[in-house]
Write a structure and sequence with these properties.
CATH topology: Carbamate kinase
Radius of gyration: 17 Å
Number of strands: 9
Strand content: 15-25%
Distance between the termini: 23 Å
Shape: globular
Bound molecules: uridine-5'-diphosphate
CATH class: Alpha Beta
Strand order of the largest sheet: 4-3-5-2-1-6-8-9-7
CATH architecture: 3-Layer(aba) Sandwich
Order of helices and strands: EHEHHEEHEHEEHHEHE
Number of helices: 8
């Protein structure tokens, strides 16, 4: 097992993971594949919390760059994460995985509000809990939402599925000599501005000692592989057992 004594994880997927080969939006076949990854994590005996971004639909920063009011645009981004969460709920239910969506922006007709104790109960009953709408406030991201929920729900690790297989010392898509860290400290990530999650999310994980596992979500079966300790990933953590900084 990658992280011994791990009972509960939070998996963060960016909205772009849901697009498949499209340039925009939700590809149901891709969402179903991702749902299989989530199910595999649950089948391995873990309690699973999920946070999905909204970048496949709308990002506040992009709206603001085109002249929109930033806060207004951010609320649109948060609504996009609710759509993605509902799509994932539907896919998980197709696989027989009981799921609840809890949104930081209340919308009683479509999902529950975020209620920590209720979320606890869902997890105890074997349900996946998808936390939507980030932290519920503009000027934040779903990375921060993921870190917040991971802390609140006392998750043992935050798994960040991305398009690369870990954290590198420079951009591996631009520099063929880029070196991937097996482990790296929170402080180095922050000091060197390494691409993991935004700074507030990394700081929240550091302050609450939640390891961040960065891995590629593009390879099928990778969530289970990484969790079993047979995958490729970077662990951002406090202690650096391998002696790296
Ligand atoms: N957002 C926000 N507050 C939050 C979470 C998200 O304002 O707590 C908005 C913000 O505009 C962001 C958008 O929702 O750009 C989509 O989230 P994010 O960019 O984190 O999605 P991802 O990159 O993970 O797909």
């Amino acid at each position: 097992m990658l992280l011994p004594d791990t009972k509960r994880i939070l998996l963060k997927l960016s909205g772009e993971c849901l697009m498949g080969d499209e340039d925009y939006g939700i590809d149901p076949a891709t969402v179903l594949e991702l749902a299989k990854e989530v199910k595999a994590a649950q089948d391995s005996g873990l309690e699973v919390c999920l946070v999905i971004g909204g970048g496949n639909i709308f990002r506040g920063m992009a709206g603001a760059a085109q002249g929109m009011d930033r806060a207004q645009a951010d609320y649109m981004g948060m609504l996009a994460t609710v759509m993605n969460s509902l799509a994932m709920q539907s896919a998980l239910e197709q696989l027989g995985v009981h799921t609840r969506v809890q949104s930081a922006i209340q919308m009683d007709e479509v999902c529950e509000p975020v209620i920590r104790r209720r979320a606890e109960r869902h997890l105890e009953k074997g349900r996946v809990v998808i936390f939507a709408a980030g932290v519920g406030s503009p000027y934040f991201t779903t990375d921060s939402g993921a870190a917040l929920r991971a802390a609140e729900m006392k998750c043992d690790a935050l798994l960040k599925g991305t398009s690369v297989d870990g954290v590198y010392d420079s951009d591996p898509k631009k520099n063929s000599d880029a070196k991937r860290f097996d482990t790296v400290s929170y402080d180095k990530v922050l000091a060197d501005n390494l691409k993991v999650m935004d700074a507030s999310a990394v700081a929240l994980c550091r302050d609450n000692d939640i390891p961040i596992v960065v891995f590629s979500i593009r390879e099928k079966g990778n969530v289970a592989r990484v969790l079993a300790g047979n995958g490729v990933q970077t662990i951002v953590q406090k202690d650096n057992r391998n002696g790296e900084v």
